Amino acid sequence: MISTHAEEGAPLAGGGARLHGVVSLRERRAEYVLPRNGLITSDPGCPGCNQRDRCVGAGSSPEDLAQVDRIIGHRRRLERGEVLFRTRDPCEFLYAIRVGSLKSVQISEDGREQVIGFHMAGEIIGFDAIAAKAHTCNAVALEDSKVCAISLKRAGEGSAAAQLVQRNLSRAMSQEITREQRMIVLLSYSLALSRVASFLLSMSNNFEARGYSRSEFLLRMSRAEIGSFLGMTIETVSRSLSELAREGIIETDQRHLRILDMERLRKKTRRIAMI
Amino acid sequence: MISTHAEEGAPLAGGGARLHGVVSLRERRAEYVLPRNGLITSDPGCPGCNQRDRCVGAGSSPEDLAQVDRIIGHRRRLERGEVLFRTRDPCEFLYAIRVGSLKSVQISEDGREQVIGFHMAGEIIGFDAIAAKAHTCNAVALEDSKVCAISLKRAGEGSAAAQLVQRNLSRAMSQEITREQRMIVLLSYSLALSRVASFLLSMSNNFEARGYSRSEFLLRMSRAEIGSFLGMTIETVSRSLSELAREGIIETDQRHLRILDMERLRKKTRRIAMI
DNA sequence: CGCCGTCTTGAAGACTTTCAAACGAAGTGG
DNA sequence: CCACTTCGTTTGAAAGTCTTCAAGACGGCG
Lengths: 275, 275
Prior knowledge:
Two copies of one chain form a homodimer.
Chain A: E1 39-40, H1 62-68, E2 72-78, E3 83-85, E4 93-99, E5 101-107, E6 113-120, E7 124-125, H2 128-132, E8 138-141, E9 145-151, H3 152-155, H4 160-188, H5 192-209, E10 216-218, H6 223-230, H7 234-246, E11 250-253, E12 256-259, H8 262-269
Antiparallel strand pairs in A: 1-2, 2-9, 3-8, 4-7, 4-9, 5-6, 5-8, 10-12, 11-12
Helix pairs in contact in A: 1-4, 5-7, 5-8, 6-7
The structure holds a DNA duplex.
């Protein structure tokens, strides 16, 4: 049984890797106070966050972390499908994903959505707005999620904590650039099956990096969203997954995915076509 | 007659836009001192650079610009085909392109090149190395070029000039993220003709932003490099260009390109296929 | 002038999209 | 509780697009 409910567990704890999406009862926490706008007003903050070593306060002592916490403008809970920011929203905050996952989409003038990225807990989104002074894409929650708004104004004020945050933001932007470069390489693969295989491996790596199983997880996005991201129709996504399943490389049940043969999946990423 | 020689002119001066690649005699300058390794030892520096309003010293007074100049580790001249940095080179410098253009390529384990970006004067490259502590791609000059090495160590030292540089680098990274997001959108277009049209328009915008003609320019990269970048074979690149020329939208003569109908070229970017 | 690398063009085959139909899960209303 | 709708997904067949293989054209250079 796989729950679709997001949870703020501590997956990095030793032993076998937790399966993403599976919620054990003892990990449930009391809900934070939630006013109607989704703002979280009572919260353990950065010192109590399980993403603290991955986020803007990385590398600071517990005391410093309390200072880093002041850079956070507010924390917010998002329901599945809720929009965090939209194109042309002014650039005030970056958002650290604490729980859950989001997608970035660009809307073309004729109203079609194009997914340009999927983001998981521990990632920071909104960097595109720094230079443009406004967001250039929409961010939408793929599941119930929690985000921390990093105030760009406070991050630029020059305190020791702000400087630490700036260094971490710089590192995060560099990571984002590297991630997008990998995406550009992926999209240049000519064969649909290669792109789907690469996508699954990247998901697998993302889950593994967060302490979840790398071989079994729940895809939080629809086939249509995968297709939009990978530049193919949902039929081709479906056929590619079916083909991988037919060859015994993966097993799918709805959005639940199990990788049976990691090495053969990797081989599939090497496009056969093109020189 | 179009020269292929790079030149450090002042294209932003008023009147008609200069044609990129065309060199008028009076714009030629005395060559800088060039030791065998391509290092430039005598140079007007940031205050005399025509990219100063676009680069890391943007927004500073002429006096401050002399301080910014200290962040520069060295300046270097590259010949066409010369490699600026390679994958796994340690991360010491970012590079500001002063004259010319470069490509970023990733080399797959089987030795094939994949172009992941083209970069022009005024851009800064190497951001991928900040988080990874080493470069994750190779940078190769597409034409004779000049670059300024920005010392990451000196940029982090905390002086007023260094802080200005850091803000500008942050902006440049955000721009780079936005650029790559646009590339991801481009690559998701299913039709080859749409991708080629988008590529030409992006080139056109790049030249226009630098004061050159937006409708007539010299492509510094081969069809093979375009194909690698756009994820298609060189035959498909060639056929797409021929098709656009047949329709009277562009005119090509080798790498020299003239856009005859910007609006119809824009229409071609809207992919017909897919929902 | 002839060689070489780059580019263009043609034809056949491979792959993807499109259109259409069917399936299963989830939710609604009788 | 079951029919019924809806949505997301899967599968099939035909049409369209791209790649592959092959050959020819073009320009630069010795």
